[in-house]
From TrEMBL, chains A, B:
Binds 1 [4Fe-4S] cluster per subunit. The cluster is coordinated with 3 cysteines and an exchangeable S-adenosyl-L-methionine. One of its GO terms (cellular component) is cytosol. This is Phosphomethylpyrimidine synthase. Its cofactor is [4Fe-4S] cluster. It comes from Ezakiella coagulans. It catalyses: 5-amino-1-(5-phospho-beta-D-ribosyl)imidazole + S-adenosyl-L-methionine = 4-amino-2-methyl-5-(phosphooxymethyl)pyrimidine + CO + 5'-deoxyadenosine + formate + L-methionine + 3 H(+). InterPro entries: ThiC (IPR037509), ThiC/Bza_core_dom (IPR038521), ThiC/BzaA/B (IPR002817).
Length: 432, 432
């Protein structure tokens, strides 16, 4: 069958190569995927021009995926450094990389990335607009924003964040309900600024049909950005955020009518008590479109440790149905992450995703079960093999050798694993 | 009034100096504390011989507290190293330190610790039994275990973990319902071994009344240990764990009859979906006695990162009513933590406690609000002052200087805080 998008194929009952790969990776049937992709609950972001990709599915019934942000910028315009982050992300198994490049040779970097990346690639065309169009923000014409999207689509980008929800109506609702942290979304704040300076409607909202044509042509998945996501605990789940979410739900339906795949971006900074509600509200208002959360960070007071604050929120969100987690590094709120920060962020996000999956994906806990078995047997090599970061686990143990090689220096002779194994075999334990 | 324990004083409506201090620290009334301490929902662990203490309350309506484990052992018998961990714990504001010393000059270490520690001190007398009594585990007589408790109480220990719940009945239930990870509690496994080798009832269960007399005499809080806590996701919330919890609830009532303060220790390794239930079950079966959780770790697959797996579980537990979190360090399951690990563990536990408090303590989110305000103002010095780890936050930012000093290298000119402040003042933003 000739089809434009995975969704179109699914609606016609046609199983694509991508669906076969995803079914295999997830241990689900292609029938399941056909049904879920047709109704928008599952997406397979895969631009027809991204040849190096190993496709992944995102959505209901599938494992939670994680995304890594990187890219060249004015302050740190070092392509090699960012490529090192790419290598780190790929080696640690991140399913997606967002190239947030916003200054310098962005297209060169993007093309290099698309050539090598097995992970899906996302971008925020808004960040690249000023550089690509070579004119100041306020001077960009509404239609020109689409030229940036078209260029990214041609390059092979699998999904694009588009802040189409911060339209005039939602801007007014936001302005009537001011916040401690105003609009913290970079793309959202730039669009809000552009709208104010030009007294115009949001160009992505105004030209949404044209945008959908571009996405349909290359099967670019729309990641509908939440410009009004809360940037502080005090602002969580406020009128602006929720009114924008309603608009994103409307835009989701319009995209699906044109067979364009969609996911919805979510908060942000959210207290633990609000997270489940936020996931359920997205699923309801956006018709079960996959939910891509940026955190959520469960407190504002831990700069330097926001990989942990977001792992807490991400795990809870994933457990309740969020499908895709954007990593956050220890550098968040302080500076651009370095390669070590990227690693810390990826591991924390993977832990969060897996901890959430234990709650919703039947097979997820098999990994834990196997680790627990090896732990009881004091099979250290076996534990290292299964560890989320075998290198760190090995190094930690090597740094501190126990007298009894079967135990570790935490408990030594009092090792409960060792002692219980003896007692349960009817042997005595000796502690003296 | 002459009283033996805080609980006795509270039952008679007498406000102790400790209650006054705790009321001041928590922003609650002494009337509130009197009511809650009298019924066992709040405890103030404070041995009458621990003079350096700055008392803290644990329980309903009070901020979630954290505990730091350390102590000398056979493999790493370095008193200076452990004292550095003590200094780290005190400087970072940990409210409790458990001295798990189990080899060497344990009493000397314990006395030094009690002399200097403003934090409450807990111990597990079981760990110290072999050394203190100077005989092999299997040769210790039932009554002799009490001698160790008495010594710790005389020294000034504020709370002791006692594994009185792993009695014959619960051992049998456990043996009928075997696990992937058997008895992972160190003290619990040693007692189980002792019981098997000597064919005797659990000495702390058998001599529970005598134990209560010691606790009452010095106002030592009983921390009733959960020997059958799950040590792997597969074992969570199983018959052994819950039957022991029922016993701990019975023992709680017996302690309260003698005015002995009690808290209940909890799991362990628990999937996210079981955490709220575990907290509610403890509150129900143990009559709202404060809940002290050891984690919970939400996955088994992340050795090297268990400060994160436990921060996720700890935050969720605290949000649902757990009162006291035992820190877990990155070294868990691999080796004894070093000083850096201790720091990482404390920060992660403090983040978890605070994230949970946002959900249950009205004043908790004021810290986040103030941070968010300073963030919007790009008041970097102000943010550092409020950061949970000002040193790391400062270092991170200093490592990477932005062109525009008001922003950071993450977003540079695209800083949403800066741009929104300009736009909302009616000014143009320039991105070019």
């Amino acid at each position: 069958m000739k089809y434009k998008t995975q969704m179109e194929a699914a609606k016609h009952g046609f199983v694509t190569d991508e669906m076969k790969i995803v079914a295999e990776k997830e241990g689900v049937s292609t029938d399941y995927l056909l049904e879920k992709i047709a109704i928008g609950e599952v997406i397979i972001p895969r631009n027809k021009n991204h040849n190096s990709i190993s496709p992944e599915g995102i959505g209901t019934g599938l494992k939670t995926k994680i995304n890594v942000n990187l890219g060249i910028s004015k302050d740190i315009n070092d392509m090699d450094l960012e490529m090192k982050k790419v290598d780190m992300a790929l080696s640690l198994g991140a399913e997606a990389i967002m190239d947030l490049s916003n200054y310098g040779k962005t297209q060169e970097f993007r093309k290099k990335l698309l050539e090598k990346s097995t992970a899906m690639i996302g971008t925020v065309p808004m960040y690249d607009a000023v550089g690509f169009l070579d004119k100041g923000l306020s001077f960009i014409k509404a239609e020109e924003f689409l030229d940036v999207v078209r260029n990214h689509a041609e390059n092979g980008v699998d999904f694009v964040t588009i802040h189409a929800g911060i339209n005039r109506q939602n801007s007014e609702i936001y302005l009537r309900n001011r916040r401690v942290n105003e609009i913290v979304s970079r793309g959202g704040s730039l669009l809000f600024g552009w709208m104010k300076m030009n007294d115009r409607e949001n160009p992505f909202y105004e030209y949404y049909d044209e945008l959908l044509e571009i996405c349909r042509e290359y099967d670019v998945t729309l990641s509908l950005g939440d410009s009004l996501r809360p940037g502080g605990i005090a602002d969580a789940t406020d009128p602006g955020q929720i009114s924008e979410l309603i608009t994103l739900g409307e835009l989701t339906k319009r995209a699906w009518e044109k067979d364009v795949q969609v996911m919805i971006e979510g908060p942000g900074h959210v207290p633990i008590g609000d997270i489940e509600m936020n996931v359920k509200l997205e699923k309801k208002l956006c018709h079960n479109a996959p939910f891509y959360v940026l955190g959520p960070l469960v407190t504002d007071i831990a700069p330097g440790y926001d990989h942990i604050t977001s792992a807490i929120g991400g795990a809870i969100a994933a457990a309740h149905g969020a499908d895709f987690l954007c990593y956050v590094t220890p550098a968040e709120h302080l500076r651009l992450p370095d390669v070590d920060d990227v690693k810390e962020g990826i591991i924390a996000a993977k832990i969060a995703a897996h901890a959430g999956d234990i709650n919703k994906i039947k097979s997820a806990k098999e990994w834990d079960l196997e680790m627990s078995k090896r732990r009881q047997k004091l099979d250290w090599e076996g534990m290292f093999e299964l560890a989320i970061d075998p290198v760190k686990a090995r190094r930690y143990r090597a740094e501190s050798q126990p007298t009894d090689e079967h135990t570790c220096t935490m408990c030594g002779a009092m090792c409960s694993m060792k002692n219980m194994n003896l007692i349960l075999e009817g042997k005595d334990i000796k502690i003296d």
